[in-house]
Amino acid sequence: MTDLWQIEVGKLKQRINNLLNEKHLFNRRKTMSQAKILNEKELNLLLLYIKTKKYGYRDRAMVLMTYWAGMRIGEVAATKIKDVLGADGKIKEELHLTAEQTKGKYARTVVLADKLRKELTDYLKTRFNTNELIGLSYSKSINKPLFETQKREGFNNNTACYHFHMLYKQAGLIGCSSHSGRRTFLTSLSSKSVPLRVLMELAGHRQAQTTMRYIDVTQDMKRAAVALI
Q1: CATH for 78
Q2: Is the residue at 27 inside a domain?
């Protein structure tokens, strides 16, 4: 009788855990889908605020990794200097993330736009107080996190999420989260008629439905569509 009771209790606990996990996943997806998408004016406002911060050069580069490359916040936190800096002292055109660095546990490639590569170059030159990065390519620092913190060597997913939350809050941008950059990235490309298959590759998604949850339909997109009539 006791063994049967323990089995039933175990089943009940498992059902409760399953429900809690489903609720967490639902809330996370809901938060992601509701994260505000920034227009160009709002993004510039955020960057102007960041410029006033002590670690503005670092925060600007972190934010633009999400807006101009569509990277997840956890991926930004997990990136090492060696991931972006080539042996020639130049920022790579593509960032190869291992399965351990990505949320989906699948390795993926992130394409770095020219303007983002320039931002990362400027950031690293400022961080290491140098005009040339080729020396950094052959130093021990190459293995350090791309984005360091004051109290620890680098960010993790939670600290990076909170850091972005505070940046948005202090800049007066309501409704934003660490998903805002990624959502803005995909929505912007979608509005420019980039095919869904390409968006999936850029986002590192394996399902089209996942990518579609990130894309918002803006008023400008609707007006542009109606103008085609």
Answers
A1: 1.10.443.10
A2: no
